[in-house]
Amino acid sequence: MNTMHILQDALQLANAPTVGALIGLYRAAIRQFGFSHFIVTGLPSHGQRFENLVLERFWPEDWMSHYLSRDYIKRNPVAMASLVLRTPFTWKEASMRASALGSAGDRIMREGADAGLKDGVCIPIPVRNALAGCISLAGETPITRKEALESVNVLSLTFASRLQLLVDRSRPKGLTLSDREREVLTWVAEGKTAWEISQILGISDSTVNKHIAGAMRKTGSVTRTQAVAKAMSSMEIAG
């Protein structure tokens, strides 16, 4: 893949008019390197749920359900490496770094391979409201040598930047919740009571109620359920 072709692809990504068009362009671009799947996500810190930080994915559904049910994000070698590395790396490199995990990390990688994610690379990216973020790409036999990884990095960074810009543009003007209000509403959406949320976040239940009230005021809602619905529709929290 020559440099001019990569720059042309990156330019198309940077000017994609919609999220749908952007995803189509990105899938076509990474397919040239043997990648058939990808996920764009933030990585959770204390009190955050991984599934609420996923921005976009073209990932096997069965594997995603299995991954979430086993809470693999806490032991996945690729996710762990994404928390400390700031440059692109291969899944093999991540597995080597996590050798101290022993069978836990190895098992996750083997199960992923059985689901069709046999090999891959990871591109660290910044993600709003997350400790860190990444784009993880996978395929049967992807090209992961250094020069290919550099090209995939350019394409992925452009894709991630455009994706988050398009998502931000879709937010209603004037509706901007604080990080804590988003966090509290996310737990309300999970069916947690104020007391349960206070225990999870390590704050008082009166403080939880204060943040909920603030979110209700900003969204023009009269109930917590309505505030959650409006926050989801405006993409302030994940649905």
Key traits:
11 helices; 2 domains; 12% strand; 239 residues; single chain; Arc Repressor Mutant, subunit A; globular; five-stranded antiparallel beta sheet; alpha+beta; Beta-Lactamase; 53% helix
What can you see in these coordinates?
The protein is an alpha+beta fold and about 240 residues long. The protein folds into two domains: about 5-170, Transcription factor LuxR-like, autoinducer-binding domain (Beta-Lactamase), CATH 3.30.450; about 180-235, Winged helix-like DNA-binding domain superfamily/Winged helix DNA-binding domain (Arc Repressor Mutant, subunit A). About 55% of the residues lie in helices and about 10% in strands. It has helices at about 5-15, 20-30, 60-70, 75-80, 90-95, 105-115, 145-170, 180-190, 195-200, 205-220, 225-235, and strands at about 35-45, 55-60, 90, 120-125, 130-140. It has a five-stranded antiparallel sheet. Helix 2 runs antiparallel to helix 7. The model has no long low-confidence stretch (mean pLDDT about 90).
